[in-house]
Design a protein that fits this description.
The complex is a heterodimer of chains A (108) and B (114). Chain A is 0% helix and 54% strand. Chain A is mostly beta strands and 108 residues long. With 114 residues, chain B is an all-beta fold. Chain B has strands at residues 5-7, 10-13, 19-24, 31-37, 44-50, 53-56, 65-68, 75-79, 88-95, 104-105, 109-113. In chain B, β4 and β5 (44-50) form a beta hairpin. The termini of chain B are far apart. Classes of the chains: A mainly beta (108), B mainly beta (114). The A-B interface holds A 4, 6, 30-31, 33, 40-45, 48, 86, 88, 90, 92, 95-101, 103 and B 4, 33, 35, 40-45, 48, 56, 58-59, 91, 93, 99-100, 102-103, 105-108.
Chain lengths: 108, 114
């Protein structure tokens, strides 16, 4: 059983479109992180959210932590080919867990 | 500053053979992690060290996998004997300390077991 379920698993969109990736759990977390991983490389941290209801923006990326601190979303506005990659949420329960991952392809 | 170094980048072995991976974390980082990542999935934590002590190895298949960080700096992960299902990317990461600090990842070692 995966502690952190991400949806969708795969996403292929045209450049300029908007998209949202979800990270859901039945557990409560003190903080949640989002990473992006490009082929042949390790994941790179994008953001850490700590407070329930918190919203953080990173250029065209908007991250939200659920009020109950069980879920999170990542919204990308006007996606670009450089956004292509595997997006991973991660959180610390009794150990550190990564989510199942969302593979995003942005077509020029 | 230099990032997390891993070697080799690629390794192909036959089943039942042994293999070892090496990781050198960012200087000064006390916590070191080894992950296994199956293609298209999120990384799974295998073992976490704090300095030279093991914090968590609950998901390490101890009948075939072993890891050490003897001097609290670099680390090796060994598989003996390898199985087909061990084919994956093995990622090493380090952080200043445990407990929610940002993890910095190396490029990984892609292992293929035939």
């Amino acid at each position: 059983t995966q502690l952190l379920e991400q949806s969708p698993q795969f996403l292929s969109i045209q450049e300029g479109e908007n998209l949202t990736v979800y990270c859901n759990s039945s557990s409560v977390f003190s903080s949640l992180q989002w990473y992006r991983q490009e082929p042949g490389e390790g994941p790179v941290l994008l953001v850490t959210v700590v407070t329930g209801g918190e919203v953080k923006k990173l250029k065209r990326l908007t991250f939200q932590f659920g009020d109950a601190r069980k879920d999170s979303s990542l919204h990308i506005t006007a996606a670009q080919p450089g956004d292509t990659g595997l997006y991973l949420c991660a959180a610390t329960g009794n150990q550190f867990y990564f989510g199942t991952g969302t593979s995003l392809t942005v077509i020029p | 500053e230099a990032g997390v170094a891993q070697s080799p980048r690629y390794k192909i072995i036959e089943k039942r053979q042994s293999v070892a991976f090496w990781c050198n974390p960012i200087s000064g980082h006390a916590t070191l992690y080894w992950y296994q990542q199956i293609l298209g999935q999120g990384p799974k934590l295998l073992i976490q060290f704090q300095n030279n002590g093991v914090v968590d190895d609950s998901q390490l298949p101890k009948d075939r996998f072993s890891a050490e960080r003897l001097k609290g700096v670099d680390s090796t992960l060994k598989i003996q004997p390898a199985k087909l299902e061990d084919s994956a990317v093995y990622l090493c990461a380090s952080s200043l300390s445990q407990g929610g600090y940002e993890q910095y990842f190396g490029p990984g070692t892609r292992l293929t077991v035939t």
